[in-house]
Design a protein that fits this description.
The structure holds 2 protein chains of 2 kinds.
Chain A lengths: L1 H11 L3 E2 L2 E5 L6 E7 L2 E6 L9 H14 L4 E6 L12 H9 L2 E2 L10 H5 L11 E5 L7 E6 L5 E5 L3
Parallel strand pairs in A: 4-5, 6-9
Antiparallel strand pairs in A: 1-2, 3-4, 7-8, 8-9
Chain B lengths: L1 H23 L8 H29 L4 H6 L10 H4 L5 H22 L5 H29 L3 H18 L9 H6 L6 H18 L25 H8 L1 H5 L6
Helix pairs in contact in B: 1-2, 2-6, 5-6, 5-7, 5-9
């Protein structure tokens, strides 16, 4: 059973966010439960932003990826018992975001204020001498910033 | 009790759908690129929040599926306030409406996060974090333009004068308010309006803007009972144009 469980996790590590294709659903902290029983799998998926258009797409991608690996009965349900926050993004997820050219969200520990939204580290040069240009970016989960040191604009995954 | 919750959910979701549609009209037309993107993102959030509430209506109360609720009713069946259906006007008006609406939304969801109706409380907890971006964005621009030039201040003040009587329509009491309150589902529209005024007044003051003095008769009520302005039906006609070509189509 442990082997199967690991197999499922391995597959989940290959299901990417369509808007940030280097980040898997595991990196994003979107998986809250994996139950493997013989060849059936039950997964609980925690949606990120309420209006994220990718949720349904990700849900079907998970089922498809697992079925292609040989699991016959795959059930993916949306988790409603808890809320997603950007604090759930893993350490390796944060590194992948930066490698992709997106700033990583600051830890918010349940409170979100303007300072946390404005404070961003430049993913290009690592400077924190940056300013917020717009709270809304090219997708719902991104804000737009500018780095005063390397003088480049960049986007950041929003803290939520 | 379920009639009371249904009425509340329709009111909220319809407000979100209609204002989301209006705000999306700025896509491609925003005065600067960042604001074009901001209004488009805000619109996307609002339509997503409407969808979440229609989904609750469908899953918890057996109402039709969200697409059918959203796209197959006429104006009489919409419980939204008249405020949200008004045309986008100039940018000052849309910005002022965004400020007045999103503060109300943010406070409403904060109240609902304590609701005894668990599915709504869970959704409210999630949505209220997202709305933080909306209110911070609105506050920033209200301050910037209210304390900018003489012209920008004058335009924001006249937008406020025009929007305010309609904004009060967001808090049109529902006949179920007492029931919702006694069951700890929602404190009610009047309580929300009080909190809203307490929140927006200091922000407006810092932005050199004054709330117009209004008599009770000037509040634009009626939307919640299906009485709308001449602007809602054309909006719905446009919004549902593709859906009506083939309501049974799958996407």
């Amino acid at each position: 059973m442990v082997i199967l469980q690991n197999k499922v996790l391995e597959v989940l590590g290959t299901v990417m966010d369509p808007e940030i294709p280097t980040l898997s659903v595991l990196d994003l902290g979107m998986i809250t439960e994996v139950n493997v029983d013989d060849h059936s799998v039950n997964i609980r998926l925690l949606p990120t932003f309420v209006a994220c258009p990718a949720t349904t797409y990700i849900k079907s991608n998970i089922a498809e990826a697992l079925m292609q690996t040989g699991f016959e009965n795959v059930q993916v349900d949306l988790e409603t018992e808890m809320n997603w926050t950007s604090d759930r993004i893993s350490e390796s997820g944060r590194k992948k975001l930066e490698a992709f050219g997106l700033g990583a969200p600051i830890q918010i520990d349940g409170v979100l204020n303007l300072d946390q939204i404005a404070q961003a580290v430049c993913p290009h040069c690592g400077s924190d001498n940056t300013e917020l240009r717009s709270m809304f970016g090219s997708t719902l989960c991104r804000s737009i910033h500018y780095c005063n040191d390397c003088r480049q604009g960049f986007e950041r995954f929003k803290p939520l | 009790m379920s009639e009371a919750i249904k009425d509340l959910l329709y009111h909220m979701a319809d407000d979100e759908l209609v204002i989301g549609h209006r705000n999306s009209e700025w896509t491609g037309l925003g005065p600067i690129l960042e604001e074009d993107i901001a209004f488009s993102s805000i619109a996307q959030d609002q339509i997503g929040h409407a969808l979440a509430n229609y989904t609750l209506l469908n899953e918890q109360f057996g109402e039709a599926i969200p697409d059918v609720i959203a796209f197959s009713r006429d104006e009489k069946q919409f419980h939204s306030s008249q405020f949200v259906e008004l045309p986008i006007g100039d940018y000052a008006f849309s910005l002022m409406r965004h400020f007045l609406f999103d503060h109300a939304e943010s406070l409403r969801y904060a109240m609902l996060s304590e609701s005894s109706f668990a599915p709504l409380a869970a959704l409210a907890k999630k949505i209220k974090g997202e709305l933080k971006y909306h209110t911070l964005h609105a506050d920033l621009w209200i301050k910037k333009l209210g304390t900018g030039t003489e012209e920008s201040q004058a335009r924001m003040q006249s937008a406020l004068n025009e929007a305010f009587p309609y904004a009060l329509g967001m808090f049109e009491p529902a006949k179920y308010d007492d029931e919702l309150k006694s069951e700890n589902i929602f404190e009610g529209e009047t309580a929300l309006q009080t909190k809203w005024l307490e929140t927006i007044m200091p922000i407006l003051e810092r932005a050199n803007l004054q709330l117009p003095k209004l008599s009770i008769k000037e509040r634009m009520y009626g939307g919640r009972q299906g009485y709308h302005t001449e602007y809602l039906q054309p909006l719905l006609d446009e919004m549902t144009e593709v859906y009506r070509l083939d309501p049974a189509a799958t996407w």
